[in-house]
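Following up on my earlier thread - several people asked me to post the actual chain instead of describing it. Fair enough. Here it is, all 809 residues.
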Amino acid sequence: MTAPTTPRATYRFQFHKDFTFADAEALVPYLDDLGISHLYASPITTARSGSTHGYDVVDPTRINPELGGEPAFRSLVAALRARDMGVIIDIVPNHMGVAGGENAWWNDVLAHGEASEYARYFDIDWREKLVLPILGDPLAETLASGALKVKQVDGRYVLEAYGEHRLPVRDEDQATAATDDIAALIDRQHYRLASWRVANDELNWRRFFTINDLAGLRAEDPAVFEATHALYFRLYAEGLIDGVRVDHVDGLTDPAGYCRELRARLDAIERPVDAPPGPAYIVIEKILADGEPLATDWGVDGTSGYDFMAQVTALLHAPAGAEPLGKLWADISGRSADFAPEELRARQELLAWQFDAQMARCVEAFVALARSSPACDGLTTGMLHRAIERLLWVFPVYRTYGTGDAAPAADGAIRETVRERVAEFVPPGEDAVVEQILAWLAGEGPGDATLAADAVRKFQQLSAPIAAKAVEDTAFYRYGRLLSRNDVGFDAARISLDVGAFHAAMTERARDWPSAMLATATHDHKRGEDVRARLAVVSEIADLWRTRVEHWLELAAPHAEGVEPADVYMLLQTLFGAWPAKLAPTDATGLTDYAERIVAWQEKALREAKLRSSWEAPDKTYENRCHDLARTLLDPARSRAFLDDMTAFVARIAAAAEANGLAQVALRYTVPGVPDLYQGTEIADLSLVDPDNRRPVDYAELEAVLADEASPKMALIARALALRREYPAVFANGSYEPIAITGTRADQAVAFSRRHDGVTVRCVIAVRCADRHIAARDWWADTALASGETLADLLAEETVSIDIVPPKS
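Reply from S.P.:
Thanks for posting it. Predicted structure:
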């Protein structure tokens, strides 16, 4: 085995019971032929039965038997090693799945309460019983309905709710459980059964975002760290894995400390002689705000790629589209043309609703801290609540990283931004309270150090989910200026990134993060990479787009009664962006299939927006109006004029959309970093938000396309991967040197070189060419590289040029 632990290129598989290790093993030759060096696996530990994603881990100590268990995993690794390939696995240190009665650690906590050896594993406030919000109705009503029963399972009595939840009964009650009054029996347990509706207000344990089925882990506790990571360390020690991707690192108490410990532990392991010697490859799932740096002292190789996805997508968008598209959105929706008001409102609403319990405990921690110091005399609970609330309204990043007694220098800039943003919301005379909170976040405030650490932790573990849920899972579904700018890790307020700024970001990446992941599609994206590429074209042709949209709105009007105009417009954007390749306006079967995908997206979008419907209280009447509209617009018998116009417009901009897609591919495989290929996106990725982006992949089709070179996208991926295989050092260690472009179209191409040890790879890539309607030579005219070579020559036949310069003799 000679391949390094740092991948040359990864391929992401989403494992579940219908796509197992054996299925992946059968595809190893295909991955090798394509040029992949490492399989990048979704979580492989035991998840809840039937899990389609693996993030609801119920047992981190063993490999999931639904995927084939450890024997099948070893067989897969052997097949990869035989081809000099490796494995990176996704790990989940922040939380565990606790629904369905399959988590032995959680069950032990329920059975023994705070006395359980696993009570310290979960982030539970034990001043009261553990709240279990699993009932459909209040406890009294549930009891009266007979939905709660005592049953014997494997020789022990349990409480069964709705035939779905099985909850342990205390040891002390086992002898009498079958004859006891059930209400009295429940009252004696270590947990309090409650309606699911009380979770936002009364939950006394940390959950993952707003998901009651996922309980937060205390990975900062050495015992918890050891128990939850022992399997990963063993797999690495045996040479079965080469590294990890850490899920949701910002959910942890001390991400920096966690990452450093993980690095130290993995790199201290002695590997088998036939395995790569290390260091281990470690990337983290981290959402970076616009301009937010990733600390270089965490011991990681970088992020899992959302930051690159945001940068490359913004590069494809034209800045000139921002104002007219904002006006179009405002004209249609009656909502703000700017994103900021939507973000603020979403933060305010979710903080006051879905995170009320967590907010109350955060405030309580700061109250205790304030009362530990005479210097804070006069700070009331109300004052602290208002200060924390308003800081969270405007927090510009997921979180800070101080631990209560120290804070990294980078946090200073964040606190200053917060200070500027929060000023307009602070009640008169309470500026000093805000300053006190900021001082504690900086590790500089007065009071007991232990209480300070607890208060700061609670703030940080609240600011991160607020950012995720309020921005990405709420405001992004409310704001529709251009949906290609609303995705995980994106800044929806910023529509584009100029070439110079892109070069600066890549230069920084080469300096600080040459091995970070480069992603343009993931299991979490809201729109596939080619959906975003197609919608990006709209930013260049805003006036033409308005004309088409106004026409579509006229055609839709007879069927859109009672549907909010904003929802109609976002539907139109989605229909256009995700329109399947070769779908004809007369293909009734294809249109029906597409309609059902759209309806599934629509339901999720409406409920995440929380304006006319929600997951908590679905408005089926309104949702059905929206679904009827979607189905009608995709029915050739009722909407032929619309379908003809839509397909004609998709065809009209097809060349520009394809060029954007190829630009994304070319940049992913040539800029500094490790390119990741998400399953199935070798050809057009016109997927929508999950579960649409996790649909089964037709690998027989992909193998045929690769063999026949039938797809420009697949052909470019294969060519780029072949270059990376032939010249690995250039891409792993090479410099990134922007190449100046002059002439008429200087702002519509990106050019750079990667140089190492006498080998130079030069890349010239067209961007933002939607209005091109003439031959390449006339289009590029005098546009040229600094060397004098013209883009008319370099891009005469293609929109991407990747070459070894000078060519091999």
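The longest strand covers residues 749-756. That should answer part of your original question.
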